[in-house]
């Protein structure tokens, strides 16, 4: 029984370590400018990571001090958390599967169309009820102001790999034919009817293209890229957690069997 408990304690410690990259991935996502402006999706990954940390610690204590009740509680809670993490991964993969980006001749960065993303993202992130708050948050951030500090010439800017958010919120659509002055100042469009957003562009630094559909598309492009990167870490973590959970279940079952056998030998049953 002691051997089984030691095995359970070790695998719970591994599960505890797995919670660290999950929490780190969640904090990384939450710290991004776009996620800072979308409060509803900032903290799910961090919360799941913290819960896995607490539950793993409970299982470790239960195994180390031979507390069967704590171990049973750990197995029950960990099964729920792994299921929730799997649901989050599948959901994130589905809603970020479609990519609304397209290449622009003479530009290193890509631009984005709003209708190229999933319906759920469009409806729940950029609907009229949410966008006004998001738009205000973006305009108060340094997402666009950083561009004027980093890129001094037009050629340097056009060959830059800027983020989807910067490519669509901080500048007018390329099809409009605006003339470059600096990354957030554009004048005299030669094709103002090329896109409805051409008329919405404003050189006021608090306006820019924050009212444009293309800005909404850039926000979704940012979200997609960031969640795709975070998913790699989460997939590795959930695979290890499932492996650890199966070992813990087997060790707990062996410990229970050994305990019954020991009690039987002593004549208790």
UniProtKB/TrEMBL annotation:
- InterPro entries hit by this protein: TET_plant (IPR044991), Tetraspanin/Peripherin (IPR018499)
Pfam families hit by this protein? Tetraspanin
Q: Membrane topology per the record?
A: Multi-pass membrane protein
Q: Membrane-spanning residues where? A: 6-31, 43-65, 71-95, 230-248
Places the protein is found: Membrane
Would you say which domain of life the source belongs to? Eukaryota
> Which keywords accompany this UniProt record?
Membrane, Transmembrane, Transmembrane helix
Q: So what family is this one in?
A: Belongs to the tetraspanin (TM4SF) family.
Record's protein name: Tetraspanin-2
Gene coding for it: LOC107424003
